[in-house]
Design goal:
By secondary structure, this protein is of the alpha/beta class. It has helices at residues 4-19, 25-40, 56-62, 77-87, 101-107, 126-138, 159-173, 179-192, 198-207; strands spanning 45-50, 67-74, 94-98, 112-118, 140-151, 212-219, 222-228. The chain has one domain (23-152, 195-228): Rossmann fold (3-Layer(aba) Sandwich). Helix 2 (25-40) packs parallel to helix 3 (56-62) and helix 6 crosses helix 9.
Amino acid sequence: MTTASEFFEQWTAYNLVLDHNYMFHGEIFRDVQHVIEAHYCDRPLTVLDLGCGSARHSVQALRGRTVARFAGYDLAEAALVEAARNLAALNCPIELKQCELLDGLRSTAGRFDLIFCSFALHHLAAADKAAFFREAFQRLNEDGMLLLVDVMREPDEDPAVYLERYCAWVRSDWKALSPGALNLLCDHIRQNDVAETASDLRDMAAAGGFNRCVEINRFRWHHTWCLGQYR
């Protein structure tokens, strides 16, 4: 079990990952911002962010827009404290809650124009991922969209091979992190990550109601999708 001090070090390490753009957040959310601008133009948005973390990149993607409501859910209390500070820039009603993303999705009130889920879905088992797509579809307004950012296995990678390759890449390329931080992050990945293939996730999304899936970008195992429904 992770101690409080280990968890704090892990969260500090993740901030270093963001600072050094090791998971391509800069490129990912630059493209996400363009997709939002193209789809919604100047319309005000209601936003649900599942696994919101510190919301630093969500805020960047929404910068300059009118946000009527922002609801965010995450398991990490430290992340939510940072999120409250970052989200103040949106100047809109903010709802933050510490909980599992699927619990947050099921318990939140109302519908949303935009649902974010960034590097969080892979923590769920396959059955819960399928439930996520069903629930997210029901929570979207007409013409709304789900923006999904997550890791996905290659078609020829079984879970064990994926974990070996991903952790080898982390240890090779994430040079700003200490050996202790790398150990904590790789332990977290091995114990919590359940990455699916892109094909399996598309099938789950389609079964949940999404008949439109557009890949926005991809960097190594990190995919960004825009999902909706043709009406």
